[in-house]
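quick one before i forget lol
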Amino acid sequence: MNILVINCGSSSLKYQLINMDDESVLAKGLVERIGIDGSVLKHEVEGHDKVKIQQDIPNHEVALKLVMDALVDSEHGAIKSLDEINAVGHRVVHGGEEFAQSVLIDEKVIEGIKKCNELAPLHNPANLIGISACQKILPNVKMVAVFDTAFHQTMPKESYLYALPYEYYEKYKIRRYGFHGTSHLYVSQRAADMLGKKPEQVNIITCHLGNGASCAAVKAGKCVDTSMGLTPLEGLIMGTRCGDMDPAIVTFLMDKEKLDTKGINEVMNKKSGVLGMSGVSSDFRDIEDAQAQGNEKAKVALDAYHQRVKKYIGAYYSELGHVDAIVFTAGLGENSAKSREEICKGLEELGIELDTQKNKVRGKEEIVSKDSSKIKIMVIPTNEELVIARDTLRLTK
């Protein structure tokens, strides 16, 4: 059974075609700059050279048509006909309280996703565009929505409620939702596998560290706390997002800088994080290079980033009571040995002992803790597409 996984952003479209008989990736790619000058499709099929197609791509429907054409192309295709696509799984960022698990897409589901648009205005509308475009091209194929927020719906009220008047939760559903759920689910289950146990037998702290970043406390296979909140702005310092801060700063800056709500949101979401702190870049590789050249602001930005992750690990350690493993995943978590070392430094008294030799690994599944470490430290490359494909298979088979 072949499943097409679609991850639709506001100006991009990522995809993978997965053969679920053996979970092999038949093809994958990325369409960038949809509706913007310089549109391009980067397409890759197992055993073939990468293909780059540059042409005007004004909208997501054109982008998806280009992807379908690439998948069945006689030279660089992965299948002979679109009839070989048996189901489609769509990543949807925000499911609110409406969706605590993946669902088959119908009109009722689409209306439910629309209700969550105001909670994720940059993401959900784009996800819906991808669903609509796919339905036009593959009208008879079953489709599934897999939500970033679903894994975190097991959090207890004390973890997800804010200390605001309760009426705001009742009226507007203001609460912590959490994101990167498919990633936290995948790596926590893989960590249990690597420990030779079932997910319900272990407690794990997962650290999804990239340009967007979040931590989660996973107890017996279920999320009990996570760092992101109502939106992906809360929690860790990120590439361009501020993360946790005194909420009074918002109104203070609005007054001092004469900012409206759009302006302050722009500052907090796109001009802050390590970019704002360092003045260098939102790319951690650039900041590490700047630090090596003696840039003090770059050093402080990295120190602050590592310190914030360390603080969440400590908090979740106390919340879980017993921890079997800490997992590092996503771009920075998988590839930066230096960041993992800095985050784990000073946590030895908690039974978290990193082996600096084992830690010299990039993008590869590995246990990088000392043999004597009470808590295992793991690097596990995330695979959100496979989670989406598995859920799609389960609901459509």
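fyi The chain has a mean pLDDT of 94.
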